[in-house]
Design goal:
Layout lengths: L1 E5 L1 H8 L8 H11 L3 E5 L9 H10 L4 E5 L3 H10 L3 E4 L15 H17 L3 E6 L3 H10 L3 E5 L1 H8 L3 H20 L3 E5 L7 H8 L5 E4 L1 H23 L2
Parallel strand pairs: 1-2, 1-8, 2-3, 3-4, 4-5, 5-6, 6-7, 7-8
Helix pairs in contact: 2-3, 5-6, 7-8
Bound molecules: pyridoxine-5'-phosphate.
Pyridoxine-5'-phosphate (PXP) binds next to β8 and α10.
Length: 242
């Protein structure tokens, strides 16, 4: 499976102080150097983490594909058509949510999305829709003409994290069934949300061969902070104790 590294939460730390560090652009370049297959970022309407300039710089500087997650709004479409990421992934967005909760309801947005996506497809940008593992959502996704879907793994991840392994297994089967169904319908199938160093292994074992790519963000950023903490403290001590 390919790995798309989501750099949103590098920007979350920066925005906590509205300062210049850490930079998601720098993180994207390091992820690329480390072997990531793609950089994923979510430009939210409230700009709580990634800023417009981050997107522009990442698109300009990285040579691996850039996947822009965005809500289906006019503003975001204008930005996508200007910056031209390699892929857009449409996600639902609610201002009060902590993270993207639930998939996009393509069934109820179907007619609107057909028109919405037309110029994006004409611009040669790959289209993916972030949806729940549900046949009706997959059928609607095919109808709107998407190239791919990204299956929401949040419920699986939460069950696994709570050690409800039997239920996690069932959720994995539900995702697997949906992934095969979508593939049969000609869609490329990606997945992501809430995956960690612990819960990703069962997912990969079960979904290898049908899910092409995972997009993972929070857990990578969280571990980067911990892995790098000792070195960061030592370097500060060196500056102070001279
Ligand atoms: N995929 C999609 C569509 C997302 O919205 C997100 C979160 O921005 C992710 C993947 C990554 O999720 P996480 O940060 O939990 O790894």
């Amino acid at each position: 499976m390919r790995l798309g590294v989501n750099v949103d939460h590098v920007a979350t730390v920066r925005q906590a102080r509205r300062t210049f560090e850490p930079s998601p652009v720098f993180a994207a370049l390091i992820a690329q150097q480390a072997g990531a297959d793609q950089i994923t970022l979510h430009l939210r309407e409230d700009r709580r983490h990634i800023q417009d300039r981050d997107l522009e710089l990442i698109k300009e500087l990285v040579i691996i594909p850039v996947n822009l997650e965005m809500a289906p709004t006019e503003e975001m479409r204008e930005i996508a058509l200007r910056v031209k990421p390699d892929r857009i992934t449409l996600v639902p967005e609610r201002r009060e949510e902590i993270t993207t909760e639930g998939g996009l309801d393509v069934v109820s947005l179907k007619e609107r999305l057909k028109d919405y996506l037309k110029p994006i497809k004409e611009a040669g940008i790959e289209v993916s829709l972030f949806i729940e593992a549900d046949r009706a959502q997959i059928d609607a996704s095919v109808e709107v003409g998407t190239d791919a879907i990204e299956l929401h793994t949040g419920a699986y991840a939460n069950l696994w994290n709570e050690h409800r392994f039997e239920e996690a297994k069932k959720e994995l089967q539900r995702i697997k069934e949906a992934a095969f169904y979508a593939k049969e319908k000609g869609l490329r199938v990606y997945a992501g949300h809430g995956l960690t160093y612990h819960n990703v292994k069962d997912f990969v074992r079960e979904l290898k061969g049908v899910v092409e790519e995972l997009n993972i963000g929070h857990s990578i950023v969280a571990n980067a902070v911990i892995f790098g903490f000792e070195r960061a403290v030592k370097e500060m001590i060196n500056l102070i104790k001279t």
